Amino acid sequence: MVDVSTSAAAFSDSLPSAHFIDGEWRKPQSGNLMETFDPGRAEPHARFAAGTAEDVAEAVASAKRAQRDEWRKTTPAERGRILMRAAELIRQNAERLAIAEVLDSGKTLGEARGDVRGSARAFEYYAGAADKHEGKAFPLGPDYTSYSIEEPIGVTAHIVPWNYPLSTACRSIAPALAAGCTAVVKPAEQTPMTALLLAEILVQAGLPRGVCNVVTGTGISAGAPLVSHPDVRHVTFTGSTVTGINVMKAAAQNVASVTLELGGKSPNIVLADADIELALDNVVGAIFENAGQICSAGSRLVIERSIHAEFIEKLVARARALRIGHGLTEGVNFGAINSAEHLAKVASYVEGAKARGISIATGGNVAVDPATGKGWFFEPTVLDDVKWDDPVVQEEIFGPVLAVQVVDSAEEAVEAANCTDYALAAGLFTKDLTRALRIARDVDAGQVYVNEYFAGGIETPFGGNRRSGIGREKGLVAVTSYCKTKAVSIRI
Known about the structure:
Radius of gyration: 23 Å
Structural class: alpha/beta
Shape: globular
CATH superfamily of the largest domain: Aldehyde Dehydrogenase, Chain A, domain 1
Strand content: 15-25%
Number of domains: 2
């Protein structure tokens, strides 16, 4: 365990401050650096390269050369071996990656360690998929042979968010590499470090130079030139709906394909026949893990009226028992908000709710680390019995704020679940399997979790409908996003 007051600074000094391009560290062409902040202390902890269009062009050129000259010619089996070695190296470097993630993002060390385990698993999973992505044969009759080939689409861009920097990067980079594509990664400017460390690990695993490049910087200076670059053939973006729309427009100029994993306002339905203790465990985790900064967070509790009062009383007790503090502090299980700007956004939603007379069952205030008086924190918050059209029900807050919708039946619960423009995830707690299957059918969501929120894994396709995005990540379907199908038909 790192002592925050004495060791974090020394750790940060060991972190990279350059781009990773063509298999090596490269200083930004502008010569400029930026600061990344430790949210748990609200202080800068490291500096990194401020990328520009010139750096992006260099990285894309490297990726294009590597894809053309080497990576697409590498056998799928060998690609799989390299990805498997990467999985093992991620595990060997787990503590360094986890600490870097805490200092950049503000989450707890336990959460960061879980993210690292999931990242290694992603490379392990797609290592196994690399030599199993097959074409098809088409029955044109006895005088023809017709078949399809799944070819790598080419250079891919990966725009990575700040809430899960390492795991989100890995879940798109790994299938792209398995398919034979090369990657240029632009991590969020708030959380650049683990993407840089990952790129170095991949080269150590045997990935050829230029196959995976990382350019850091702001969305305007580095992200926008990347998604609009004419040599980028696919863009994978995770972030806000507004930015995702702009990414899609930029990619369309080059007729590049996109995978967009965007906003969410996911319902967590608890019916009267549910296992209450199980539901409580999952409702708490669904909204308060990573301080609610999760696209698929269960940020709405849809609950039947007959159990509402009892459930909220127990939920409040659990929320108040969470221990706020710096992510590297022993015993802390509730981390920081990623930035001052985002903390202000979360606070503004709750202040608006207070002004409209919404009941605050618990929380509702900006906080600090009680051990230091520093950091960007917001109390675990429950807003009770909220009208369906209220902004805290309709809009993504992306923080530890749960909006409660009270309903009188399972049928009304489905209506409540579908009452927003988002359709990313949904949770459901009931002992009635038939009812669960019906609700899973009728709720509009990219994934439905029954009796365990966040159920599934890298094997399970993940993505949203409507304003929550298009395309799917994870699972074997993700590899398809990085392929183009070629049909060959021969008269014999």
